[in-house]
Amino acid sequence: MDRNAALVTGGNSGIGFECARQLAREGWHVLIASRNREMSADAVRRIAHESGDDAASEMGLDLGSVASVRRFAGEIAGKNVPLRALVCNAGLQVMKGPRHSPDGFELTFAVNHLGHFLLTNLLLARLLANAPARIVIVASGVHDPKLRTAMPKPSITDLETLAKTGGPRKDAFDGRLAYVNSKLCNLWFAYELGRRIEAAGVSTDGRRLAVNAFDPGLVPGSGLARDYPPVLRFVWFRILPGLARLLTPVVAGINPASKAGPALARLVLDPTLARVSGKYFPSHTRWREAPSSDASYDVARARALWEESVRMTHLLPGESPLVAR
Ligand SMILES: NC(=O)c1ccc[n+]([C@@H]2O[C@H](COP(=O)([O-])OP(=O)(O)OC[C@H]3O[C@@H](n4cnc5c(N)ncnc54)[C@H](OP(=O)(O)O)[C@@H]3O)[C@@H](O)[C@H]2O)c1
Q: What is the pLDDT of residue 206?
C-alpha cells in the first residue's frame, strides 16, 4: 500500500468516525480500531462507498486490556501499512462502578489513558520509521475547571488509587470524576510524550514526529452517553444533537460530530501544523492553539504518570524507543 495510513482508535462511531471519514476523503487509508467489529465493518463500508475500496479497513482492539493492545500491535507489525498518524480518540464514561479491566484497573483509566499509553509506545518505532508523522490525543475541556463545564473538577491524589478507583478515594466511585481525571491524564501523557520525543532526539528536522492534544467540545449524540440513565440518554441522543447543529455557529464549545471530526482530522492533515508539537487545540477557540488547564502543565505529575504507566503495562526497554534500557 502506498497511501499514507492513519490509525484511528474508536473510529467506528461519533467523532472518531467523522475524523476517519475526513482523512479518507483526503486520500488517506484509515485503519479503524475498536471492539465492536460489526460497527467497524459498517464504518469501513460507509467510508469505502464515499472514498473508494482501499480507503479504510478495521481491526479489533480492546484498549481496556493490556494483552489485547499487545496482540493488536503485533498484528500491525505484520502488516505493510505506511503508518503516519495515530489518533488516540477512543474513550468511554462509566456511570455505575467501579468497573475493572481484566488487569485490575478502573475501566475509565484503563481505556482512556493506559491502553492508549501502551499502544502509542508500541507503535512509536513504526511511526518514526515513516516520519514525518503525527500523534493526536483526544482530551476534553472538562479537564479544565476554568471552563465551568458542569463536570466535577479533576481530583487526583496518588496514582495507585486513581488506577484502582478513577478518583482520589479508595472507598468511593464517581464515574464523572473518573472521566474528568482520565482526560487530565490524556494531557499529561500528550505533553510528556512530546517532551520525551524531543529529549531522546528521535524526531529530527526532516523526520518530525509531532504530538498534539485536541478537545472536540460538547458533541451530543455520540456513543459516549451509552451508559447514562434513560432520561439523560434520550436528551443526549434525541434532543441535544439538533440543538448542537443550531447553536454551533454562535457557541464555539458545542458541535455536531460532523464538525468536530474534521477538526480533529485537521491536526493530522494541515501542512501549517507540520512543525507544531506539544500544543492543545480546544473547541472553545474554534480549535486554535490555546493553553489547557494549569494542572495539565505539572511536569512532575506527568512524569510520575508516565513512569507508573510503564510499570502498570509492563512496558519493556526495547519495546519503545522512549523506555530506557
Ligand atoms: N462527545 C463529547 O461530548 C465529547 C467531549 C469531549 C471529549 N470527547 C472525547 O471524544 C472521544 C470520542 O468520543 P465520542 O463522543 O465520539 O464517543 P463514542 O461515539 O462513544 O466513541 C467512542 C469510541 O471509543 C471506542 N471504544 C470504547 N471503549 C473502547 C475500548 N475498550 N477499546 C477500544 N475502543 C473503545 C468505541 O468503540 P467500541 O465500543 O466498538 O469499542 C467508540 O468507537 C473520546 O475520547 C471522548 O472522551 C467527547
A: 80
Protein residues whose CB sits closer than 6 Å to any atom of ligand 1: 9-10, 12-16, 34-36, 39, 61-64, 89-92, 111, 138, 140, 216, 218-219, 222-224
What's 278's domain CATH number?
Answer: 3.40.50.720
Ligand 1: distance of its center to the CA of 225 in Å?
9
Q: Give the pLDDT confidence of 49-97 residue by residue, as tens digits.
A: 999 999 999 999 999 999 999 999 999 999 989 999 999 999 999 999 8
Cα–Cα distance for residue pair 1/54, rounded to 1 Å: 9
Q: Which residues are catalytic?
A: 179
Mean pLDDT over 1-18 rounds to 94
Query: Does a structural domain hold residue 242?
Result: no
Element (H, E) at 117: helix 116-129
Please count the structural domains in the chain. Answer: 1
Among 176, 173, 166, which residue's Cα sits nearest to residue 225? Answer: 176
**Mean pLDDT throughout 279-283?**
98
| pTM higher than the cut 0.90 | yes
Assess if residue 143 is contained within a domain: yes
**Domain membership flag for residue 12:** yes
124 lies in some domain: yes
Ligand 1 centroid vs 156 CA: distance in angstroms?
22
- Residue 167: give the domain boundaries: 5-219+252-313
Ligand 1 centroid to Cα of residue 247, in Å, is 23
Residues 6+ apart with CB under 8 A from 208: 131, 132, 133, 274, 275, 277
Q: Is the pLDDT of residue 158 over 90?
A: yes
